[in-house]
């Protein structure tokens, strides 16, 4: 049985994935309207960006939970086991520093965007900043937790 954090990460990733299909379908809708009927929309581009960006952000958490993120192992695979452990701990440490920097540096921007409901100031004027900025910060925080869960689950052997 998986832990609650891993279940959350996997479920969120699985729920977000269909939004890519929605982005494709509304893009096709835009192309048909624009080129067949000379009637472009003001909302498709922004909504496609919002959906795709949200999916990309959450996909990092999903890949981390599944431990299917890209690893460059050409050097570490040739190292002796103790050195591989050291490299794995270095990777964990660097990832944690990077993600915690996103949380620390992004929190005030995310809160401002959300509390003031920032918009794009375009013709569609979507709340993309108010949605994406907090999502990035919250996902980075969730990734920190997922790294810790993975480390506890696998131990220092990876």
UniProtKB/TrEMBL annotation:
It is found in: Cell inner membrane. Keywords: Cell inner membrane, Cell membrane, Membrane, Transmembrane, Transmembrane helix, Transport. It comes from the Bacteria. Residues 24-153 form the Tripartite ATP-independent periplasmic transporters DctQ component domain. It is a multi-pass membrane protein. InterPro entries: DctQ, TRAP_DctQ. One of its GO terms (cellular component) is plasma membrane. GO terms for molecular function: transmembrane transporter activity. Its main location: membrane. Pfam families: DctQ. The chain crosses the membrane at residues 12-37, 43-64, 85-107, 131-152. Part of the tripartite ATP-independent periplasmic (TRAP) transport system. The complex comprises the extracytoplasmic solute receptor protein and the two transmembrane proteins. Belongs to the TRAP transporter small permease family. This is TRAP transporter small permease protein. The lineage of its organism: Bacteria, Pseudomonadati, Pseudomonadota, Alphaproteobacteria, Futianiales.
